[in-house]
Amino acid sequence: MTPRPEPIQLEWNTMFWLHLFVTLMSWIGPFVINWWVMVAIYGLVLLQFLVLKRCVMNAGHELEEGEGVTFYAYLLERLGIHFPRVPLKKFVRGQLYIWLSAGVIVLQLVIGYHPLIDLNRWL
Q: What b/e string do you get for 53-71 counting C-beta neighbours within 10 Å, with b at 16 or more?
């Protein structure tokens, strides 16, 4: 068994709470707002990773972009869930938002769920 890496150090400032809110919204957003809004947001997040090779919010709360260090790794480790950091980082920055996009499309277009804030009613 490989030893666990040192705990990720993070400043809990306003940017931390904003980042936490945005992260939580990426998971509950499909229940709150239309699929096309969520897919656009997920696309922007992926574009950020492709173009900048980092998460722009991490710098706001002193999270260093080290080997496998991500906000997800920090949150999961605080909850006592320890995934290998490098594969987790590759998943979060590669596949996660594609799967979330597919999930919101299935939820709203295939299953027929109507979000709490249905913008289609006003368009």
A: eebebbeebebeeeebbbb
Could you give the number of structural domains in the chain?
A: 1
DSSP-based three-state secondary structure for 11: coil
Q: Is residue 51 part of a domain?
A: yes
Predicted confidence (pLDDT) per residue in 38-97, tens digit: 999 999 999 999 999 888 998 888 788 778 889 999 999 999 999 999 999 999 999 999
6 to each of 12, 53, 100, how far by Cα in Å?
18, 23, 30
Q: Do residues 115 and 98 make contact, with C-beta atoms less than 8 angstroms apart?
A: no
Overall pTM surpassing 0.85 (yes/no):
yes
- Structural domain for 100, as ranges: 14-121
